[in-house]
Amino acid sequence: MSRSSLRRELVIPITVLVIGVSGAIAWVSMKAGTDAVYTLTQRILVDMTNRINHATEKHLDGALVALESVAPSAGNMPREQAFSTDMRALEEKFWAASGLFMDVNNYVYFGGKDGRFVGIYRISKEMVQLFWREPDSNERQVFRVSQIGDRSELLRTDQFDPRSRPWYQIAKDSEKPVWSKIYNNFSFHFPTITLAKAVYQKNHEFAGVVATDVTLKELSGFLRKLEISKNSVAYIVDAEGYIVATSGQELPERTVNGKPERMRAVDMKTSLINETFRKLGNSQPGTTATQTMELESGTIDVAVSPLGNRQGLNWVTVVAVPRADFMSSINQGFLQSMVIALACIIFALTIALTIVERVIRDIRKLTSAAEKFGNGEPMPSLQIRRTDEIGTLAQTFLEMENKLRFDKLTQVANRESLFAQINYLQKQAAAHPGSVEGFTLLFVDLDRFKYINDNHGHDAGDKALVIIAARLRSAIRDTDEVARYGGDEFVLLLKDTKHSIDINNMVEKICSIVEQPIALEDVVVSVGVSIGWASFPEDGADYVRLIKIADSRMYNRKRDRKSGQMHLA
């Protein structure tokens, strides 16, 4: 046997074996990585649509609040009240109502059945306009004003009859507040939607219509600030398929014959918008759902969610993310792994297999962590200490998990993370009845916190929140959780509390720790604490009821404390 033949017999089988084994391992690793990315992508899509829906519904609720502040519904008052059409009294009310949510809801107005019209439009803190039309007058006056009753600067007059406006027509025969179609604002040509409500005098006699405008420009601004991925897009469409807001740079309107015209999703030049909407059709989803689409540009993961049903609208939120955005680092890492595998042919099959096995192990950790994260289970420690692409992916995963689970300011759990953990504990209790201990929620509300913000600034308030969160963390066990529920409210999740913890003693302990003086940079402040609690399963089987009970008990405690203070005074 020649020397070259022997080399061939040894090198070729070993080379084929190493390449075959490495190829098989690479395929398994790629699949595991793809599964991890897919699971994480679905979770990100759902969380992102929830964020968009929450922000949008907050804007829409602001319009309802503004109208309720001017003309409260009978169900929200101790007794039905007749609406006063006195224009000067309405001017005073509209000054207050138009300042509640100035970013998106700064124009509140009234049109009477006799043609009278009064409205306050807060264009900015310095620029406020008063719209005024006396009953049965032919002209409407527009003033620039600085306070209630100011008429010093007349800007213009115009021919305007509120009774002919679409918002008046749709609301006058309705017992409930109704939304107009989206249109361009008359003065500034911003996409706008109007909420109008018929109001009545004594004996249910029709008096006119109160209305407020919601500017949708801020929604597009909010969508553009979202950090999803490099090539992703988020957009909102109405029931007729018209764009309400979009995260892209393409405007949701075009000019036709000198007039602005709204764009349908299928007519947008942004391919991710028109292609995904064509595939989705004009169906209205009942709940948030995710799906995968194959487009010309590649595989796209899409989340679709209903929006505005509670407010009386029929919108849809869509978030579309190219799969390649999340797979690029995975693909790059596995390309380098193949190069390493080829190098291992020269150095040793054992070394190659060890390296590949390590890669598989770490990716399986990521896959398992992603699945647990998606199910709301506690995150395991990854313990991935690498400096290559897989280490970068692990670090990115941890950072993303931190952003989604923890409050940015206080670094305790956020509301969504709290709900996920509660759901997990409830699932464990259902899966293992009798063997899983109950848990308790403590709803913590800070008293006198507004005083800190008002007198020392929001920076001081933020620092105080950070210190209070740390104190709450120190007051509980390592197995328990502190979550910021919102503003100056926290919720403590105490696990295994059926027999091991005296709730009253825990409440007193927390109060004594949190109510200690707080030393800021140049001032010492203090807050009070009101705490309510609810236990699972004694007080309820779902977190909505548990939160409600704990919140109610907290308010009872707050009321009792205030009553005690008043009595002592």
Describe this structure in words.
The protein is α+β, with helices and mostly antiparallel strands and 569 residues long. It has two domains: 20-332, 2-Layer Sandwich (Beta-Lactamase), CATH 3.30.450.20; 415-568, Alpha-Beta Plaits (2-Layer Sandwich). The protein has 13 helices and 22 strands. The chain has helices at 3-70, 87-97, 166-172, 217-225, 271-280, 323-347, 349-375, 389-405, 415-431, 449-456, 458-475, 503-514, 543-568; strands at residues 107-112, 117-122, 128-133, 140-145, 153-158, 178-179, 183-184, 191-200, 206-215, 233-237, 243-246, 253-256, 259-262, 289-295, 298-307, 315-322, 439-447, 481-486, 489-495, 518-519, 524-525, 528-536. The strands form five sheets. Strands 1, 2, 3, 4, 5, 6, 7, 8 and 9 form a nine-stranded antiparallel β-sheet that branches. The protein has a five-stranded antiparallel β-sheet with strand order 11-10-16-15-14. Strands 18-19-17-22 form a four-stranded antiparallel β-sheet, with helices on both faces. Helix 1 (3-70) runs parallel beside helix 7. It is globular, with a radius of gyration of 30 Å. The model is unreliable at 1-7 (pLDDT under 50).
